């Protein structure tokens, strides 16, 4: 079992729809959780960070964390074609270890 | 302000050689992390350095080593290169140890032939 699991996709949504990206993790001592966006051929770009249970909103993006269920998600409202990319879930533990999932590829169709 | 800069951007090496990759963090950032990313996978954590000390190590062989300098720049060294070391090597910097607000450089594409 991978430490961070993401649906590989591809996930396809029409423009203006809500895209829902999910991530589960196995390490209960994980402290910090991040969502990165990676365009093809580019390096990852931080979108959201979340550290406590609940929702965190930033513009069209909402991150949700449930530590009891070891689950973190990212919602993208009013999806745009420019949101088409691979979305990476990542976590960080106090032991100084970062772990990334393999990403979910999102395509937003005009 | 300059972002995270990595050099070189591309590199071709022969099996058995060694390579040194360099990273300059964003000004004021004290943490540098190194990752290896192969096509179709997420970045794999190699090392984290904070305040010039190793604070985290991933599951990579001892052929991989790194260090951080007093100006917080960092080097990743890989000895006895294997074909399987071909990948994009990413450096990320952050202000804190917890990797909050981490920013990635553009990466170094290493090809081992």
List the helices and strands and how they pair.
The complex is a heterodimer of chains A (110) and B (113).
Chain A: E1 4-6, E2 11-14, E3 19-25, E4 30-38, E5 45-50, E6 54-58, E7 61-66, E8 71-76, E9 85-93, E10 98-100, E11 104-109
Parallel strand pairs in A: 2-11
Antiparallel strand pairs in A: 1-3, 3-8, 4-5, 4-9, 6-7, 7-8, 9-10, 9-11
Chain B: E1 5-7, E2 10-13, E3 19-24, E4 31-37, E5 44-50, E6 53-57, E7 64-68, E8 74-78, E9 87-94, E10 103-104, E11 108-112
Parallel strand pairs in B: 2-11
Antiparallel strand pairs in B: 1-3, 3-8, 4-5, 4-9, 5-6, 7-8, 9-10, 9-11
The class by helix and strand makeup of chain A works out as mainly beta
The outline of chain B comes out as globular
Treating each run of at least 4 consecutive H or I residues as one helix, how many helices of chain A? 0
> What order do the helices and strands of chain A follow?
EEEEEEEEEEE
| Cα distance spanning the termini of chain A | 36 Å
Strand content of chain B: over 45%
Which chains share the greatest interface? Answer: A-B, 22 and 26 residues
Rg result of chain A: 13 Å
Strand content of chain A: over 45%
Q: Bin the helical content of chain B.
A: under 10%
Describe this structure in words.
The complex is a heterodimer of chains A (110) and B (113). Chain A has strands at 4-6, 11-14, 19-25, 30-38, 45-50, 54-58, 61-66, 71-76, 85-93, 98-100, 104-109. With 110 residues, chain A is mainly beta. In chain A, the strands form two sheets. In chain A, strands 2, 4, 5, 9, 10 and 11 form a six-stranded mixed β-sheet that branches. In chain A, strands 1-3-8-7-6 form a five-stranded antiparallel β-sheet, with no helix packed on it. In chain B, the strands form two sheets. In chain B, strands 2, 4, 5, 6, 9, 10 and 11 form a seven-stranded mixed β-sheet that branches. With 113 residues, chain B is mainly beta. The termini of chain B are far apart. Chain B is globular. The model of chain B has no long low-confidence stretch (mean pLDDT 94). The chains are: A mainly beta (110), B mainly beta (113). The A-B interface holds A 4, 31-32, 34, 42-46, 49, 88, 90, 92, 95-103 and B 33, 35, 40-45, 48, 50, 55-58, 90, 97-107.
